[in-house]
Specification:
single chain; 152 residues; mainly alpha; Arc Repressor Mutant, subunit A; 3 domains; 10 helices; elongated; RecX_HTH_2nd; RecX_HTH_3rd
């Protein structure tokens, strides 16, 4: 089997799913003859709009938002090597629907308000692990029984 060129490898990867530039750099690095060749291929892909970090952020956020909070999505984007400015812009977009998304995730998992403090803790830890903020968790789980307990 003939060896694939660096650009062909990149196109093959991008045909399956979106990749951030940093992820592509990591995947293609071992196959590059030298770093300059790799950077040249990445620049060409970006110039032809075959690879776009903005498109990656939009796609990643779209697929993860129904199940996860903004903090978790921002962490994943940062881990993928996305520029902080793009991450902050996406956080602003996600913040608009944070409570609604958290409520949907919570309803799908539990369906009814917690009856005991232990259940409340279990529900809140579930949402926190999903990347929702403490404030969002409190708003989603707020019930008259627990609101009276918060005043003490």
């Amino acid at each position: 089997m003939a060896t694939l060129s660096l650009k062909a490898r990149a196109v093959r990867l991008l045909a399956r799913r979106e990749y951030s530039q940093a992820e592509l750099r990591q995947k293609l690095g071992p196959h590059a003859a030298n770093p300059a060749e790799l950077e040249q291929v990445l620049a060409a892909l970006a110039a032809q709009q075959w690879q776009s970090d903005q498109r990656y952020v939009a796609q990643r956020s779209h697929t993860r938002a129904p199940r996860y909070g903004a903090r978790r999505i921002a962490f994943e984007l940062t881990q993928a090597g996305i520029a902080p400015a793009l991450v902050q812009a996406e956080l602003a977009t996600l913040a608009q629907s944070e409570i609604t998304r958290a409520r949907q995730v919570w309803l799908k998992r539990f369906g009814q308000p917690p009856a005991t403090p232990q259940e409340y803790q279990r529900h809140s830890l579930f949402l926190l692990r999903r990347g929702f903020t403490q404030d969002t968790v409190r708003r989603v789980l707020r019930t008259p029984a627990f609101d009276a307990g918060d005043e003490s």
